[in-house]
Amino acid sequence: MDVQRYISSGILESYVFGLLPDAEHGEVETIVAQYPQVKAAVQELQLDRERFVQLYAMAPPAGIKDRLLDIIRKEETPEGNSLLPEELRAPAAAGTSRETPVKRINGHKSSTEKIWKYIAAAIILLFLGSVLLNFFFFSRSTDYKSRYQSLVAAKEKLDAQKESQSLTAHKELQKELDMLKDPAFKWIKLEGFGANAGQIVTVCWNPVSRAVFLIAQALPMAPVGKQYQLWVIRNKKLVDAGIFHGGAQVAQKIQAMKPAEAAEGFAITLENEGGSAQPTMDQLQLSAKVQK
Amino acid sequence: MDYHVTYTEAELVQGLHARDQKIFSFLYDHYSPALYGVIVKVLNDHTLAVDVLQDVFLKIWRYADQYNEDKGRLFTWMLNIARNTAIDVLRSKAYKLEQKIQNITDDVHLNGGPLTVYQSVDHLGFSKVLDKLTKEQRTLIDLAYYKGCTQEEISRALDIPLGTVKTRLRNAIIQLRNILNK
């Protein structure tokens, strides 16, 4: 090894001033032990450093020395031991070497440790976040499930309603068709007159089956507390044929009335709710004769 | 009358090994100002420095058998303990690099402000020495030696390439030696 070159390389300055990383620090110590010249150079440098450091010398506050001597005298007693700094207390941690320069690695280590800490924290946060999201989506999915089920139920209900509706609609249609097709049915159109002009009710009567139906095609809704009543005219007498509704809602509806054996005509009066046994003649609304 | 007694290096080491309180007392009297100066320079905190100084002397007392003459004089060993203990404290205080630099910028010595009273063993004037270093050289030495910054840390903190930090630091130390040896 070129000792002179090594000495002038500047590494010894760094060594003496404690600026070398641990690994290089050990290397220099090995070389110092091997080469007296290097050792001498190091000693020179150490003296320089001692002188340099003396420049900053500063008398410490009085009293420390006495306190130290006190601790030293009592160091073998538990009381004295407790006065020692933690790392020096018995059982003394003799393993810690003083020659190791400042735990240089620590600087790096702590920064990598920090990075790991951050990574760990990030992972934990991500994990917690995913757990939360899981809960969120899980509750959302169960929510969807229940909503889906209620939708299915609603649809089934609607389907059932539709079916029953179409059944009744079908029945009514069939009834209507029957009436239209059965030649026995007689159609009597009752038209309003006077104050009731424009009102139309069609009665259809089957003298064979005696069935009576009516369609209140154009009849206003009865006033509150009143109801329309159909009368069969027979032997100049009015016979009750049942009560029925007026209004736009039933304008298309075929309403079944009481059967009639024989009829010369039909009349409609406005009666108190529930109908009357005898017609109130001044409330006659519409009437028509059956065409022979 | 320890004051008038001087010991040879060998006597000091021997006395320390023998746990001679007189030797301990002598070491304290002769070296505490230098060690205290180093600690204060590292920590910039006199209250804390007093505690550290006490710890340092207790370590010297307790770990005397670990002193290795081959590695340098007793004073060099004591200096290492003082610097390393102080820098450990500095680090355990979780100082950030910026704070370390801040400490240096605030340092009265660098700003040429009134100097703290110190006991210079050397006759060479303190500011005279430092005046011969450039401000950058002083900063480099302070960061490296007193704040325990690695050359990588200095490179990052001062935004100077690592190679340049190494060269300049070496030059600073060489310059320092030249001044001291004049």
Automatic annotation (TrEMBL), chain A:
**A Gene Ontology cellular-component term:** plasma membrane
**Anti-sigma K factor RskA C-terminal domain: which residues?**
119-280
BP GO annotations: regulation of translation
* Family matches, as InterPro entries: Anti-sigma-K/W_factor (IPR051474), RskA_C (IPR018764)
Q: Which UniProt keywords apply?
A: Membrane, Transmembrane, Transmembrane helix
GO-annotated molecular function: sigma factor antagonist activity
Keyword Transmembrane helix assigned? yes
Which region ranges are annotated with the description Disordered? 80-103
Residue ranges spanning the membrane: these are: 115-138
Pfam families, A to Z:
RskA_C
According to the lineage, what is the superkingdom?
Bacteria
Entry protein name: Anti-sigma factor
UniProtKB/TrEMBL annotation, chain B:
- UniProt xrefs under Pfam families: Sigma70_r2 (PF04542), Sigma70_r4 (PF04545)
InterPro entries registered for this protein in UniProt: RNA_pol_sigma-70-like (IPR039425), RNA_pol_sigma-70_dom (IPR014284), RNA_pol_sigma70_r2 (IPR007627), RNA_pol_sigma70_r4 (IPR007630), RNA_pol_sigma_r2 (IPR013325), RNA_pol_sigma_r3/r4-like (IPR013324), WH-like_DNA-bd_sf (IPR036388)
Which Gene3D superfamilies does UniProt cross-reference here? 1.10.1740.10, Winged helix-like DNA-binding domain superfamily/Winged helix DNA-binding domain (1.10.10.10)
* Signal peptide from the UniProt entry: none
User: Any idea which UniProt keywords this protein has?
Assistant: DNA-binding, Sigma factor, Transcription, Transcription regulation
Biological process terms in GO annotation: DNA-templated transcription initiation
User: In this protein, which residues make up the domain named RNA polymerase sigma-70 region?
Assistant: 27-93, 129-177
Q: Which GO terms describe its molecular function?
A: DNA binding; sigma factor activity
| Keyword Nucleus part of the UniProt annotation | no
Under the heading NCBIfam families, the entry gives: sigma70-ECF (TIGR02937)
The record, for PANTHER family, names: RNA POLYMERASE ECF-TYPE SIGMA FACTO, RNA POLYMERASE SIGMA FACTOR SIGZ
Q: Which family does it belong to?
A: Belongs to the sigma-70 factor family. ECF subfamily.
What's the name of the protein? Sigma-70 family RNA polymerase sigma factor
Record organism: Chitinophaga fulva
